[in-house]
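To start, one record:
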Amino acid sequence: MSYPYELEDETLWDAGSQSGRLYFSLAQGAAEHIQMPTGLTHIDRLGGCDIELPTFQAFVEGLYDSYSRTNSAVLQGLWRGLLVTSLVLLDMAGSSITLSAEHEDALRSDMASFGRSMGAPNWRHYSSAVPQPQQPPAPGSVPPGSCSGRYGRR
């Protein structure tokens, strides 16, 4: 059983039933806390959610603002999973928010991990920390790190 997140009749994230329901519940709770609507509407006929993109983007910005402004490690930890899932879902919808340099590398690394699990088509692009697929060397080329030429390794 799944819990699809849809934008204009396109399924962005075909979440598992438990993951999808938990994300929706956490988003609703966070929305109450930050006093903003989520942009997520439960769809009875599908057992999933419709995404209203401008509202959802504003919600994700509100989550990120709350995450960024706290000095509490506990609060940051509580915000982080919801925020990262939301950032990936927002990216899958073709949108994004601006992340500060202070948080960007760590959040993008988490986005790569979450994105892969969520089926995001471009999850590899979220972080340079995620190993990229290796291309086979061209015929006659020298693999990186090997000795070549008259100078060898540096």
Q: What stands out?
A: The CA atoms of residues 135 and 143 lie 11 Å apart. Strands lie at 2-7, 10-16, 40-43, 48-51. Residues 134-138, 141-154 have pLDDT under 50 and may be disordered. The first helix runs from residue 17 to 34.
